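pinging the channel bc i need a second pair of eyes. not urgent but kinda urgent?? the chain im working w is below, pasted from the shared doc
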Amino acid sequence: MASLTIWAQHETKTAFSITTTGGGNPSCAFSKGVIYSTPTEVLSQLNTSLSTVVTMALSSTTGKVGLTWNDAPATLTWNDTSLRDYLGFTGDITDADRYGDTPCSGWWHGNMASPPEYRRQYSTTDNISSYGRATSTGDISCLRTSLVRLWLHRKIDVGTFADALEAAYIAAHIWAGRRITLVDAKGNYTKAVPASGWEFAPGLLDPQTAYADLEISAW
């Protein structure tokens, strides 16, 4: 099975700036209406502006953001709770290196049993004349759907199966209200939205596994 990571996308609802003290007090401005495919895009913008004071890095295995101070004492003030929560932090941050309190919003990582291959939709029209019948087909490529089957294993390295299942439920609840980005083991990105939602089927195969079916539409 190939591995798959799913991130919830983030849209900046209002314009704001993340501010810091120390190292010249750099700040990082975010514009209203910008959509970020993954937390990596957000962190790239932050690091470009704030690296003299602080650097942030994303763990693809835990989904958490690590924060390292390059100039201390210093403070980072989010000025936007939506982005702060999206990156998995609570409250402003002062001096100490740390990881986010939770994984980034909507993060899920596991095995993918079915590849995200899309079923294209077509429109067809019958043209009947004295010469016979011909069918014309037009490719409507703006909507492509797929069913991605995600696998949860009871034998996991960190935590318990119940923890993994709970985390997947939490992530799926977030996906239901947002666009998502799927990243496969080769680093290929697929932007999508949940089509008809998702469904968990724990224990249908054997005591060691459960799976979730996620139906998506390419965006």
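so Residues 2-108 form one domain. and The helical segments are 39-50, 81-86, 161-175. — does that match what u expected or am i reading it wrong
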